[in-house]
Amino acid sequence: MGQMDGMVAIVTGASRGLGRAIAKEYAREGASVVICARSQSPTGLAGTLEETARDIRNAGGDVLAVSCDVTDESQVNEMVRQAVERYGRIDALFNNAGQMVLGESIMEIDAARWDQVIRINVNGPYNCSRAVLPVMMEQRRGSIINLGSRMATDPAQGGGVLYSASKAAVHMFSYCLADEVRDYNIAVNILSPGPLRSEGSAAIPWTQRDWHLRVDPSAVGPCAVYLSLQDASAFTGQLAARFDFGATWGPGIG
């Protein structure tokens, strides 16, 4: 018996890294998983949606893979429609899709670059949350998990003006949305995973300095499962974070 038996969960940005790890963990815990990502990575990083789906099926899991750009409202609505048509419900949404931009000064970021990152990191969670909420409201239960960052609250972490601003927006979006949907028994929380050994992190040269201290994305799985099981009567409007390198995962403010 898995902790998520009978549940249906959507994971965005599931072609690699943290999204793939969370999708596989959800499936391992018994959930039917809807995974989505763009058909081609604009960054050229390794990993595809089909590979994630194959991993889940080979392990005996149930998965629906849908090509979807989370910045496109019509594509998001179609992805959610397919999920409901196949499974009849949506219990959890993990808004993982995002783009990391570190170390660039404001004079290095033109308007097109700013808009691109905000569309992915902020509009993406908005589009996906808005699409699943009617289903969760009708169910009178659900859990939305938004990917946060320590860089949203601490300028010393080196996130830079664009990435830190986008994640700060996600944090406040989550807190406000949690209050807005509380009466529908829907939980909205933030997961801040800390430094990871992901494909995206490996592409950033300075991450090699602390690579040995970073954790594999699979280590985040238990915390993501915990949050997916919550509703507004249990744990909502909170930040779940790994407190320091090598710490045990669990819910907490930090």
Structural features, described:
The chain is α/β, with parallel strands linked by helices. It contains seven helices and seven strands. A seven-stranded parallel sheet has the order 3-2-1-4-5-6-7, with helices on both faces. Helix 1 packs parallel to helix 2 (49-58), helix 3 (73-87) runs parallel beside helix 4 and helix 4 (111-139) packs parallel to helix 5 (160-180). Mean pLDDT is 88; it is low at 243-254.
Structural class call reads: alpha/beta
Strand order of the largest sheet: 3-2-1-4-5-6-7
Order of helices and strands: EHEHEHEHEHEHHE
Largest sheet: 7 strands, parallel
Number of strands: 7
| Mean pLDDT level | 88
Helix content: 25-40%
Write the layout of secondary structure elements.
Layout (H helix, E strand, L loop, with lengths): L7 E5 L4 H12 L3 E6 L11 H10 L3 E6 L5 H15 L4 E4 L15 H29 L2 E6 L12 H21 L5 E7 L6 H4 L18 H8 L10 E3 L13
Parallel strand pairs: 1-2, 1-4, 2-3, 4-5, 5-6, 6-7
Helix pairs in contact: 1-2, 1-7, 3-4, 4-5
